[in-house]
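Researcher: Please translate sequence to structure tokens.
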Amino acid sequence: MRTQVGIVGAGPAGLVLAHLLRRAGIDSVVLEARSRAHVEGRIRAGVLEQGTADLLDGLGLGARMRREGLVHHGIELRFAGERHRIDLHALTEGRSITVYGQHEVVKDLIAARLDAGDPIRFAVEGVRLEGLASERPAILYRQDGQEQRLECDLVAGCDGFHGVCRAAVPPGALTVHERLYPFAWLGILAEAPPVADELIYSAHERGFALSSMRSPTLSRLYLQCAPDADAGAWPAGRIWDELRIRLDCDLPEGPIVQKGVTGMRSFVVEPLQYGRLFLAGDAAHIVPPTGAKGLNLAVADVRVLAAAIAAFAATGSTDALDGYSARCLDRIWRVQRFSWWMTALLHRFPDADPFDRRLRAAELSQLVHLPSAARTLAENYVGLPLL
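Model: Translation complete:
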């Protein structure tokens, strides 16, 4: 087989890229190691920046998001027994966020692509890349027991942190920047109405907590825990009790339908290109989830990449492709800074001394009493302008 762009990974990065390329008249094939059911069932992030929601609308993919998504104009911060609302809408001249699960976005993207007759090959095995430094790279894989070879002009590595694309780059060609955090999140999905109409971020002396939602009847809740915590050691009663303490409120309880522990790290590779391979999304970077930036940063990557590929297809010049990495990394590092800052501000570090704790308390106080500080948080939270 042959196509212009081979896309490895059917997550938000790969699927949005495929739709952007289709709009530009560029052929692509999407390869995914998991089944369609698995990909559509993965519960991940749920906060869309203003720019991400607008992009989905612009691609004609936002109808269900607009019907079922929850538009939020603010977030709430809780600390030291106080409650403060950050008015995102007022502080950013009318911008907002939309709460709409990543798996719902993926369902919409998959359905639209298949309805258009464009290929997504699920449950492929043994994916490997060849000829990345040449002008004719190829993706080899097995499907239904048959060996396949997909020849491309370009390869987009959108297959996540543990995927094969970044691993296919020769040793020494990439520089890795990484920071591991001394805590994790215990996350639950519960069949219970949200405790509030907007997200609640709580910096408690016992540890961080977050109240979010997926719908008016489905809550997504998180507790800071040890990085080696066993989710099985957290029965439902213990979870609800701890949430009540850290969020400082009564909670409507319901059956917990999903529970898991997620480690936290900051990770960036430079550059995002090797030959004709271009990395995007979690294959290139990971942010701690506190700032709700993972999906949104992936979408920002592929918007830049799609424009560069379109310029290459139209002119044969690689100038825009050669500039892809530097252009994306500027945004990536600014988002990393914001995500690191939110994480450091709201979590309890095990080695923090009284001086550290007083500094954190002072910064939280400044954030809610100094309009310029609140505006900086709001502008980053609703999302930097898409390039």
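Researcher: Any highlights?
Model: The CA atoms of residues 228 and 279 lie 30 Å apart.
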